[in-house]
Specification:
Mean pLDDT: 89
Radius of gyration: 23 Å
Structural class: mainly alpha
Subcellular location: Endomembrane system
Membrane topology: Multi-pass membrane protein
GO molecular function, one term: iron ion binding
Keywords: Lipid metabolism, Membrane, Oxidoreductase, Transmembrane, Transmembrane helix
Oligomer: single chain
GO biological process, one term: lipid biosynthetic process
Bound molecules: zinc ion
Number of helices: 17
Number of domains: 2
Strand content: under 5%
Length: 403
């Protein structure tokens, strides 16, 4: 049996998050909001999962470009590894900078910046869309002639580093501050203080920011999050709100030229009122009161189970077929939507439970040859849904939302 050892990144990151939580408590720093941490980790779970699924596609894409269009035939010598590292980091700088300067790219990157907390869980706020856009930018590397194997190793190392800079428990790091991206630099990047906006885009090296005039030292207390905070735990809304806002803005523009300007222009062009309009269209209600006291253990347990399942899924990834992957992904997405919805005390969460049961039913049907049991399971789920929907829903909601 062949294992995917990248699975161990999941427990490693979880242990580091818990360690940070422990250190923060010892230092009496209030860094973690439970709801926000769950929202952050939820986004990370789906990204890790989908990333595993599409990694092969990316690999073939790079390999195809390098073998067909590669300018040079690059061999893995020490000098070339260093060049590749610099190239990867340089491209990242420009990807990240453009992601903040162009609406169409900001739509995928905004998710990383929504959290009003700043801790290791924030590093999990990456989406599959962001991974795809980044891959597009990094295609320059195979075009230069770097082989896909080299690029994959580099992206793995390069991808681990940013995790460590999302923390407030580490202060300034002396001489390292001069050339590397440190927690202090990245705190500035995640802050919405006026003087900190659009600064410190670097991933591993801070030299690009110093070179291209986007460097800012941390010299006042950062306030984290967006300039116009999102205030929602909805899994879907966090992913898609900006697309809707952008679409509303594009629709408002009269000429084609203005529409293009909106798509490729700066996020500052977006009218702040668009958020409210988008929320009205989709019936999204902002949280006014913190839900801390009502937090449900059910959500916490679902997240814990999903983390364990994610670890198992990645570890045995090579052994799984397409239908298994598809069912697991559907189950994950429904569970994450469910958690977000419970944190917002949404009533439709009940319908999601049914969908999830149908996914489990389909899985049973696929892997358990006992046809009758599975048919019975699926039929009972449907019967429950049709005949006793109201009664079961009431009972369910009174358990999930006790007050
Ligand atoms: Zn950013
Ligand atoms: Zn970040």
């Amino acid at each position: 049996m062949e294992f995917n050892y990248l699975a161990f990144a999941v427990p490693l990151f979880v242990v580091l998050m818990l360690l940070e939580y422990y250190v923060a408590r010892k230092k009496k720093m209030e860094l973690f909001d439970l709801h926000r941490s769950i929202a952050n980790v939820s986004i990370g779970i789906l990204e890790r999962l989908t990333d595993v699924l599409v990694a092969g596609v990316f690999y073939f894409f790079y390999h195809y470009i390098q073998t067909n269009f590669g300018l040079f035939e690059i061999k893995p010598t020490a000098a070339m590894w260093i060049l590749l590292f610099l190239g990867t980091d340089f491209i990242w700088y420009w990807y990240h900078r453009l992601a903040h300067e162009m609406n169409v790219l900001w739509a995928v990157h905004v998710v990383h910046h929504q959290s009003e907390d700043f801790n290791y869980t924030v590093s999990a706020r990456i989406t599959l869309f962001q991974a795809i856009v980044r891959t597009g930018f990094w295609s320059v590397l195979p075009l230069l002639g770097f082989p896909a194997e080299m690029i994959f190793v580099m992206l793995l190392i390069h991808g681990l580093y940013p995790f460590f800079v999302h923390t407030q428990v580490i202060g300034k790091l002396g001489i390292i501050e001069y050339f590397m991206v440190t927690p202090s630099h990245h705190r500035v990047h995640h802050a919405c203080n006026d003087k900190y906006l659009d600064k410190n885009y670097g991933d591993v090296l801070i030299i690009w920011d110093k070179l291209f005039g986007t460097f800012q030292k941390e010299d006042e207390k950062p306030v984290y999050g967006l300039t116009h905070q999102l205030n929602t735990y909805s899994f879907l809304w966090q992913h898609f709100h900006f697309y809707i806002e952008l679409w509303l803005m594009v629709k408002k523009q009269k000429t084609l030229k203005d529409k293009f300007k909106m798509i490729f222009g700066s996020p500052t062009l977006i009218d702040p009122d668009m958020r409210e309009r988008a929320e009205k269209i989709f019936g999204i209600k902002q949280q006014e009161e913190p839900l801390q006291h009502r937090l449900n253990n059910y959500v916490i347990w679902q997240v814990i189970v999903m983390l364990v399942l994610l670890f198992v899924f990645i570890l045995f990834e090579f052994e799984m077929g397409a239908s298994e992957k598809f069912l697991f992904t559907s189950f994950t997405i429904l569970t994450l939507i469910n958690c977000g919805a419970i944190m917002e005390q949404k009533k439709w969460v009940f319908a999601v439970e049914f969908l999830r049961m149908l996914v489990i039913g389909s899985a049973l049907w696929l892997y358990n040859a006992d046809y009758q049991i599975v048919t019975f399971f699926i039929l009972s789920v449907i019967a429950l849904l049709v005949l006793f929907y109201r009664t079961v829903e009431e009972r369910y909601l009174s358990v999930v939302y006790p007050d």
